[in-house]
């Protein structure tokens, strides 16, 4: 964090970031990157090559949606800051319209296995406690929640935030 952002995190913020990193690594044995790495290892290649096989599968669909979600959350926050008369709801609806027009999915939402990813719930609990203590603002957590709420309304079904979505919101907070 120091190298990327030029500052040292408080102990509470550092624990939050550590929780995000652990949750991101805890995909379980069914994740495509893990399955590929395990398959590569059974072929007798080196440990480093097997790990590289798994890493090479990370991208926008699996394990990499956080970057796109962060960009979207930052954009939404910047539009809100520049136009205080506009509501987050109107900005989020506008951004969802744009994603639909481009036929793109909302990054950080949906999961093939979980209706409620347990990692998301726990990360939210930790992050919300830091909001209550004044360590982080909660601005980007609220933006992420608004995306989830409005996406569910549009799809007329529950849309779960995944670990990439909550990780993006928390990293924007930090």
Detail the topology: elements first, then pairings.
Layout: H1 2-5, H2 11-25, H3 32-42, H4 47-55, H5 65-82, H6 88-101, H7 118-132, H8 139-155, H9 163-173
Helix pairs in contact: 2-7, 2-9, 3-4, 5-6, 5-8, 5-9, 6-8, 7-9, 8-9
Highlighted features:
174 residues, mainly alpha, globular
Structure description:
By secondary structure, this protein is mainly alpha-helical. It has 9 helices and no strands. The chain is globular, with a radius of gyration of 17 Å. The mean pLDDT is 90. It has helices at 2-5, 11-25, 32-42, 47-55, 65-82, 88-101, 118-132, 139-155, 163-173.
Low-confidence stretches: none
Distance, first to last CA: 10 Å
Report the biggest beta sheet as strand number plus sense, adding barrel if it closes.
none
Estimated share of beta-strand residues: under 5%
Order of helix and strand elements from N to C terminus:
HHHHHHHHH
> How many beta-strand segments?
0
Q: Compute the number of helices.
A: 9
Helix content: 55-70%
SS content category:
mainly alpha
Query: Over all CA atoms, what is the radius of gyration?
Result: 17 Å
Mean pLDDT: 90
The geometry reads as globular
Task: Provide a short characterization of the protein structure.
This protein is an all-alpha fold and 174 residues long.
């Amino acid at each position: 964090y120091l190298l990327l952002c030029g500052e040292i995190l408080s102990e509470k913020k550092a624990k939050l970031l550590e929780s995000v990193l652990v949750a991101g690594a805890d995909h379980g044995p069914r994740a495509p990157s893990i399955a590929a790495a395990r398959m590569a290892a059974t072929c007798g290649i080196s440990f480093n090559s097997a790990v590289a096989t798994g890493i090479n599968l990370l991208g926008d669909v699996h394990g990499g949606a956080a970057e796109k979600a962060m960009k979207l959350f930052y954009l939404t926050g910047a539009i809100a800051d520049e136009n205080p008369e506009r509501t987050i709801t109107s900005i989020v609806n506008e951004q969802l319209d744009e994603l639909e027009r481009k036929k793109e999915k909302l990054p950080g939402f949906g999961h093939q296995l979980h209706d409620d990813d347990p990692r998301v719930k726990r990360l939210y609990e930790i992050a919300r406690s830091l909001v209550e203590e004044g360590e982080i603002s909660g601005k980007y957590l609220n933006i992420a929640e608004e995306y989830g709420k409005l996406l569910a309304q549009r799809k007329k079904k529950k849309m779960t935030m995944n670990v990439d979505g909550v990780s993006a919101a928390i990293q924007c907070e930090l």
